[in-house]
Design brief:
Number of domains of chain A: 4
Largest sheet of chain A: 7 strands, mixed
Shape of chain A: flat
Radius of gyration of chain A: 26 Å
CATH class of the largest domain in chain B: Alpha Beta
CATH architecture of the largest domain in chain A: Alpha-Beta Complex
Distance between the termini of chain B: 47 Å
CATH topology of the largest domain in chain A: 2-enoyl-CoA Hydratase, Chain A, domain 1
Mean pLDDT of chain A: 80
Structural class of chain A: alpha/beta
Oligomer: heterodimer
Mean pLDDT of chain B: 83
Structural class of chain B: alpha/beta
Number of helices of chain B: 13
Helix content of chain A: 25-40%
CATH topology of the largest domain in chain B: 2-enoyl-CoA Hydratase, Chain A, domain 1
CATH class of the largest domain in chain A: Alpha Beta
Number of strands of chain B: 20
CATH architecture of the largest domain in chain B: Alpha-Beta Complex
Helix content of chain B: 25-40%
Radius of gyration of chain B: 24 Å
Distance between the termini of chain A: 50 Å
Chain lengths: 516, 456
């Protein structure tokens, strides 16, 4: 018998368990919609693309040496004064990388031609080593370029801020691989403050799900949350080289605009949380519905585990876990008194302000749909910026970067660093889309590949091709697994992978059997 | 290493479990002996000490081949019970039991086994001690080893990993024990990160951890200790938690559908009562983690905690309809956890170890390598079985001996993989419907037979 506190894999769909690939191939495939992930990151040359460099053309094969010593080889997509975009071949497919001029030490044609500019040749404007561009001017958070850029070096007293945008779908756009790459970039730039700029809502498989309502299935994302958030906590703490210019650890700050559904778990491990005006933080209610087991005891076990795990994130960040509990449960009465301006929580409804009224348990108290739609219900707790401030969750409220800098106490002299975060996430989203298309294409090729040669050699060559296609798909599934969209591919990931393995085994056997 | 593990297995494991008798090898501290007799409906007679006789469950502690065992019986199996007299000097016998004693036959009021907690000699003949003052006098830092119970979150193994009995297995800790002793380790930290797993493995963990406690100061450090992963280190007196740690949620169930009930539940509850006694934790806590049971506490001004299995205490930790999982905060408040630590340095601080050095690297690697091997095994055993069956079918389906030999070769290589995995961890076989190694013997015979030319 098994005793389990089990968590489901991401991407559970209402389709049943998959079968082997041959059966799957017979079914109609769902083609990925082009707009599956609307990446909000907009690449704009802005004021920096005033003149185009004539150095390299699209299609040139180049070798790029970065200032940190990394060497990249690829094909030029676009080259401007400010940026060089190159397409790099990976094990499977390609990826496009955008490099700021400030990162580049030299570029050369792969055939040996040098790009090092001769004396007197106009060059791209030099940038401070840290890539800092912004003064304390207002920030367009959608642009990788900071308006009002300055080429002045960053002073010793200037506080530098690295912003990491959390956008799109949790587990897909916000996933461990791109976030690890971003944190490596942050480490390189040695910021004083790292801001997790969270603006995420309920999205599952590229579609908005149950807006304004709570989705208890998000609790199954907790294991991924736990592993992801290590990047911003333990791994910074334990990496002696992850420091600012003064050798100190950077401040970690969460800035919440929208954190609904699984993203609601993200800010809790960060000690300093700020909210934007109009922020909403929640959508994790109805944890009581997390398990469909017919056994009430098993259901209660799952609820207890998930709650304690979620509350543990708050404890890690130094926050009161009771707030997380109220966000998750609808059978819970919680009210608050304010004593000397500080919240004192009560497990009843006798406090000055009722936070939750166990409306999930007591029918006459259940929220009406008009209140739910406006995030004004109290069956479960949704944090607004005002409420977060009153309850001591938020340290302050800030609408723009200037305001945040003021709240952080650095408004006098700060600079937002021009890191690669936006670009990494854009590239990752593009890679995902391309990978999903590649997978669909390879499945189509598998369906079309016939084994009908006249000799065993011919037939086994075709079989070898089938095995190659299967292995290609498996490699792509393994690399991107938690981030791929089953809807886009047309199959659940785990059954597809298993079916491909079986397919390979069958074909290998056919090869063995087909000899003279 | 396999032979070493096998011989160690004999030392620490009891005989195989069966549902009807439910035998588990347990070393029970501080209990006297009586001459109670239980006559079974089958005619068999058991003599020992009846520990429980209520409802449908009878538990009698007996000696078999010098080892204590607990026999779980249902009322229906028992024909007659005769209560004997209790041993008059149990404490004296336990004091004398620190030296080796001859095994006692069942029914005699023989001496109790060696008292737990006897410490081994340290390097250079110096007696190791938990007393920090003595450590300072001997002038050497405390040697501390960390063994992983499941891969830590930093390994990023994803969902579904680290299950007890699949990746966290007692056998690895059996194998690590001599490596720890060889390296003169003083303190062993078991770092727990697991969503739970097989209940049967909990008994194995209790056995090996009891052995650990004889040689080292032991502590569990909980990152995520859910279900069987909460139950396994429960015999430790010292539990510490990560700030984000969670501990509990130990309801036994069948694949999430049905909770374990009746006799099997009673066995589990009882084992956890015993583990609670060993780990010096109130039994109400483990009970609230296993079934829907309230837990409330009073905490006085000195921090002393009084526990209630209802909601009448000043602070309700778990409602009567809930199953308990503790956060690090609650665990510390009610004295399940002795402290919270985010880093190893913090842990040393809360454990009162001021001077330390890491040790037991070989043991740590042994366990970590085992976790990684089992991770590969759990991911690949299903497809390996499928490959085996395909090759076997193909071999049986052809009369061409060359083709048959090729397929038998492929089948053998897949069989070897699975056999190796299951020798290390028999429970892995449950993923492919196997219980025990007998199936492999049968397959070996099948494959041999297939290599004989077919008779026309």
């Amino acid at each position: 018998m098994k005793t389990m506190g089990q968590t489901s894999k991401r991407g559970v769909s209402n389709r049943g368990v998959g079968t082997i690939v041959r059966g799957l191939l017979a079914a109609s495939l769902l083609v990925a919609s082009a707009g599956l992930v609307a990446s909000p990151m907009v690449l704009t040359a802005g004021a920096h693309a005033a003149a185009r460099a004539e150095l390299f053309k699209a299609g040139d094969k180049v070798k790029v040496t970065l200032k940190d010593g990394t060497v990249l080889e690829g094909e030029v997509v676009e080259h401007t004064q400010a940026q060089l975009r190159i397409r790099i071949k990976k094990d499977i497919g390609t990826s496009t990388r955008t490099l700021e001029s400030s990162e580049i030490a030299s570029v050369a044609l792969s055939d040996g031609g040098s790009s090092n500019p001769a004396p007197g040749t106009p060059t791209a404007p030099s940038r401070p080593a840290l890539g800092g561009t912004a003064t304390g001017a207002a920030t367009d958070r959608n642009s990788p370029f900071i308006a009002g850029s300055s080429m002045d070096p960053i002073g010793e007293e200037t506080k530098t801020i690295y912003v990491i945008p959390f956008r799109g779908e949790f587990g897909r756009n916000v996933a461990i691989p791109p976030m690890a790459e971003i944190m490596a970039d942050a480490k390189r730039l040695k910021p004083d403050i790292i801001v997790l700029d969270i603006d995420m809502e309920f999205i599952n498989n590229g579609r908005e799900t149950q807006p304004q309502l709570a989705d208890p299935r998000v609790f199954f994302e907790l294991e991924i949350v736990r592993q992801l958030m290590l990047l911003f906590t333990d791994e910074v703490r334990d990496d002696a080289a992850f420091v600012n210019r003064n050798g100190e650890k950077p401040r970690m700050v969460a800035w919440v605009r929208r954190a609904l559904g699984a993203p609601a778990f993200l800010p809790w491990v960060i000690p300093e949380i700020y909210y934007a005006p109009g922020a909403l933080h929640g959508g994790i209610g109805h944890v009581e519905r997390i398990s469909g087991s017919p056994s009430q005891r098993v259901r209660e076990k799952m609820i207890g585990i998930m709650l304690a795990t979620a509350e543990g994130l708050a404890i890690k960040g130094g926050h009161d876990p009771i707030v997380v509990r109220a966000m998750a449960r609808t059978d819970y009465e919680l009210s608050v008194d304010y004593v000397g301006g500080k919240p004192v929580f009560r497990n009843d409804m006798l406090g000055q302000e009722i936070l939750t009224d166990a409306g999930g348990l007591i029918e006459e108290r259940a929220d009406t749909i008009d209140r739910v739609a406006r995030y004004q219900g109290n069956d479960w707790l949704t944090l607004t910026s005002e409420r977060a401030l009153k309850l001591g969750v938020a340290r302050g409220v800030a609408g723009a970067m200037d305001d945040l800098a003021f709240e952080l106490g650095v408004a006098r002299d700060f600079r937002v660093l021009n890191g690669r975060a936006n670009q990494v996430l854009t590239d990752w989203s593009r890679e995902l889309l391309r990978t999903e298309r590649d997978i669909v294409e390879r499945i189509r090729m598998l369906r079309q590949t016939q084994v009908n040669g006249e000799t065993p050699e011919e037939r086994n060559r075709q079989r070898g091709r089938i095995i190659g296609l299967c292995r290609d798909i498996i490699r792509m599934l393994d690399r991107y697994k938690d981030s791929l969209s089953p809807t886009a591919i047309g199959f659940d990931i785990a059954p597809l992978r298993q079916g491909l393995e079986v397919q390979i085994a069958e074909v290998e056997q056919a090869i063995r059997a087909d000899r003279r | 290493m396999n032979r070493l593990i096998s011989s160690l297995r004999l030392l620490v494991r009891g005989s195989a479990l069966s549902l009807a008798l439910g035998v588990a090898a347990v070393l029970c501290p501080s209990m006297g002996w009586a001459s109670d007799t239980v006559t079974l409906a089958s005619g068999e007679t058991l003599t020992g000490t009846i520990e429980r006789d209520e409802g449908d469950v009878i538990v009698i502690r007996v000696l078999r081949e010098g080892k204590e065992e607990r026999v779980f019986l249902t009322r229906q199996e028992v024909l007659k019970i005769v209560r004997g007299t209790a041993d008059t000097q149990p404490s004296k016998i336990q004091k004398d039991a620190s030296s080796a004693t001859a095994p006692a036959s069942p029914g005699s009021s023989g001496p109790a086994p060696a008292k737990e907690g006897a410490k081994a000699q340290g390097a250079g003949g110096q007696k190791k001690s938990d007393d920090p003052k003595l450590q300072a006098l001997t002038g050497r830092p405390t040697r501390v080893a960390v063994l992983n119970f499941g891969g830590p979150s930093s390994w990023k193994l994803g969902n579904g990993a680290n299950q007890v009995g699949e990746m966290a297995i007692a056998e690895h800790f059996v194998g690590a024990l001599p490596l720890l002793k060889k390296d003169n380790v003083d303190v062993v930290i078991i770092r727990v990160n697991s969503p739970g797993g097989y209940t049967t493995e909990v008994t194995e963990f209790h056995n090996i951890f009891r052995e650990y406690k004889k040689h080292f100061r032991c502590a569990a450090w909980i990152e995520w200790g859910i279900s069987a992963a909460a139950m396994s280190p429960w015999v430790f007196e010292e539990i510490y938690m990560y700030p984000e740690g969670a501990l509990g949620g130990a309801t036994s169930h069948f694949n999430g559908v049905a909770a374990v009930e009746g006799f099997d539940l009673e066995k589990t509850l009882y084992r956890m009562e015993l583990a609670s006694a060993e780990g010096k934790k109130h039994p109400f806590i483990a009970r609230a983690m296993q079934i829907q049971a309230a837990l409330s506490v009073n905490i006085d001004e000195n921090g002393n905690v009084t526990y209630f299995q209802d909601e009448t205490g000043q602070r309700v930790i778990n409602g009567s309809s809930k199953v308990l999982t503790l956060t690090s905060k609650d665990a510390y408040d009610i004295k399940v956890s002795k402290g919270t630590a985010a880093t190893f340095e913090e842990l040393m601080g809360v454990m009162g170890i001021s001077e330390w050095e890491t040790a037991g690297a070989e043991a740590t690697k042994f366990v970590d390598d085992g976790i990684r091997r089992m991770n590969v095994a759990r991911e690949e055993i299903v497809i390996t079985m499928q490959r085996y069956q395909m090759a076997l079918g193909a071999a049986a389906g052809t009369r061409d001996m060359d083709a048959r030999r090729r397929e038998v070769g492929v089948a053998r290589s897949q069989l070897t993989r699975m056999r190796k995995w299951m020798e290390e961890n028999p429970l892995l076989g449950l993923n492919v419907g196997l219980q025990g190694m007998g199936w492999f013997t049968e397959q070996d015979r099948l494959l041999r037979d297939l290599l004989r030319p077919p008779q026309n």
